[in-house]
Amino acid sequence: MARARRHDPGRRERIVAAALRVVGRSGLAGLSHRTVAAEADVPLGSTTYHFASLDELLVAALREAGEGFGRQLRESPALADPATGLATALARLLAEWLGGERAGVELEYELYLAALRRPALRPVAAEWTESVVAALSARTDPATARALVALMDGVCLQVLLTGGTYDEAYAREMLARVLKEAPGSGGPASSEPPTRSTDT
C-alpha cells in the first residue's frame, strides 16, 4: 500500500486541503502534523517531508484559503464594468461572499489573523492585501484601494465576530464615502463633501 502511494503528485495539495479541514473543524489549536496526516490519509512522514514545520503548512494553507475572496474579486463582471459604481460592485461582492458558505469565510479570516502571533504568516497576509489592492487599483488609485480593503476587512470582521447580518446598503454607503461617489452612482461625485441637513 505504501509503495503504491509513494509517487503521488497530488499529495502535497491533499495535505494542504486536509490542513484547511482540520483548522475549519478544530481551529488552529487542533492542527498538528499528526492530525493533518490522519485527515489526508497519508503517512505522518509525508507531512513532515512536504512541510518541515507547522508554520510552513500554515503558509500554504493561508495562500490556498486566501484565494476565495481574491478569485471572486478578479472574476467579478461588475467590478470590471466602469458603468457600475465601484461602491455598489464591492458591496454586492461582499454580500455574495458573506452570504455563501460562512465556514469558509471564517476559516480564511482565522488563518489571516493567525499572522498576529505567527510572524511567518505575515508576508502571506501582506500578499493577500497587495493582490486585492492591485485588483482595485484598476478602478481607483492605490491609496484609495488600501482604504477600501481596510474598510471591507472591518465590515467582514464585525459581521463574523458579532454574528450579525451583513447590511449591504450600509456597506455601499461607507464605500461610497471613501470613494467620494454619490451613493448608487456609477462614478465619482463632486469633489465637495456632501452637505448634511441640520434639523433643529
Overall shape: it is: elongated
Global structural class: mainly alpha
- Estimate percent helicity: 55-70%
- SSE series: HHHHHHHHHHHH
Q: What is the number of beta strands? A: 0
The largest pleated sheet is described as: none
Report the C-alpha radius of gyration, rounded.
20 Å
Task: Let me know the average pLDDT.
Answer: 85
Tell me the number of helical segments per DSSP (H or I, 4 or more residues long): 12
Spans of at least 5 consecutive residues with low confidence: 1-5, 188-200
Cα end-to-end separation:
80 Å
As a percent range, the share of strand residues is under 5%
Q: Top keywords for this entry?
A:
12 helices; mainly alpha; disordered N terminus; elongated; 200 residues; disordered C terminus
Write up this protein.
By secondary structure, this protein is mostly helical. Helices cover 66% and strands 0% of the residues. The chain is built from 12 helices and no strands. It has helices at residues 2-5, 11-26, 33-40, 44-50, 54-65, 67-75, 77-80, 86-98, 102-113, 122-136, 142-162, 168-179. The protein is elongated and about 55 Å long. The model is unreliable at 1-5 and 188-200 (pLDDT under 50).
